[in-house]
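Hi X.,

You mentioned you wanted examples for the new student's onboarding notes, showing what a folding record looks like when two proteins sit in one file. Here is a clean example. The first protein comes first, with its sequence line followed by its structure tokens.
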Amino acid sequence: MKLNLNDRTCSDDVLPHPSPTVQRRMLATVHTMGALIHPPGSAGPKLQGCLVLPLAGIILAGTACARPLLFAEYDALARATNHDVIILRHDTLRGTTFDIKLRSEPRWYRRYLGTPVENGMRMAPDIGAGPVLRATAFGLEILDNRAASDMPPRMSRRIASACLVEA
């Protein structure tokens, strides 16, 4: 499937290519989700540097740029492609966080942390309120609509501990 984007939607110049370190993190994320990707460059020139997960309906972008940079550009890309967008933000001192834009919702879920779970990745907000999400080979789903800050802390620790034991 070739995604066609018209030239007025977004420009080739505004979407940065990720560094090799960020690219490795993007591939590790796709591997954790168990998803398939389009061959690089096959989805069109405007998606260079992004990984397109066709079965999941997700565009995974990566950057070392700080938040809130690139929200407008990737929001336009989400509307043009009708895909969910995950921006992987890698900082050498702070680690990796994710910003998530579901195509069915107008807002961005910002500063999420990913934890490997069986058949995918659990994504919960690092700071603030927001639902807990799961990213799999078949897309993004809301696991719990309650804010993660409202969940009992033991539940979060138990999930994190289980992932450490399995690895």
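Then the second protein repeats the pattern, sequence line and then tokens:
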Amino acid sequence: MPPELDGIVYRVVQESLTNIVRHSDATHVRIAVRVEGRCVSVDVVDDGRPGREPDVVDGPAPSAGYGLAGMAERVHALGGTFRAGRTGSGFAVGATLPLGSAVPT
């Protein structure tokens, strides 16, 4: 995986886990990083409190915290998509990035 993508995937997982520890009281967390075709995807799903934030699809909601906004900004800078929101039993964060991504100059 290109170093730029490696760093973004790491930051999405890191910030998601930080949010889980701070806000969710989760007992289980699932982290999945997959390369599918010409994309890499990362998903972090917990079973804790769903959170107060509205669902986010391809960008942060106006009231989203700095963590979600920062993740979305990093993902979008490389041409990817970002989503975050409540699930039936917790909260999920996901990002999909094209493998041909390069940091814009």
